[in-house]
Amino acid sequence: METGEECRVLSIQSHVVRGYVGNRAAAFPLQVLGFEIDTVNSVQFSNHTGYDYWKGQVLNSDELHELYEGLKLNNVNHYDYVLTGYTRDKSFLAMVVDIVQELKQQNSNLVYVCDPVMGDKWSGEGYMYVPEDLLPVYKNKVVPVADIITPNQFEAESTSSNVRVRVQRLQEERVIEGSKIKQ
To answer: What region holds the Pyridoxamine kinase/Phosphomethylpyrimidine kinase domain (predicted)?
Structure first.
C-alpha cells in the first residue's frame, strides 16, 4: 500500500480466548501490513472446537444486524475488503451475504474473501465441524457472492460438485487468486 492510502477490512470470523484462529489470527497480521481492520466475532469460544471441550457464545443474525446498523448510523460502514471465516449459525451466514451485497453496492471494487470453514478430511473421510445446515447456505448464497474463496479440499468438494474434474483439467497448472500460473 502507498503511504497515506487507507484500506479498510471488515473481518467476520471466530474469536477464541485461548489460541490463534479466526479474528485472533487475522487482525494483527493485517494491521502490521497497514490495513485498518474492524472485527465482528461470529462466535466467542474458550478455545477452538478441536479440543475435547469448549464453551462460549454464538452470534445470531439479529445481533449481527444490530452491530451493522450501528456502523451504518455512524456512517462508518465503508470497506475495501470483507473477510469471513468460521460461523455456526445459518441465519448469521445468510445475514453476512446481505451485508456483503449492500457493501458491494456502495463500493463496486470491494473484494469479498471467504474461508468457508466447515470441516476437513481425516484418514480420507470428510468430517463437518459446524452444523450441516450451513452447507446449503455456503453453496447457494455465499460462494456465488464471494470474489475469492480459500477452501481446503473437503470444503471445496462440499461446495462444488465439479472440483475433482477441475483439478484434473488443471494438471500442472496452479490456481492462485483465480489466475492460472504455469509451473
So the answer is: 96-161
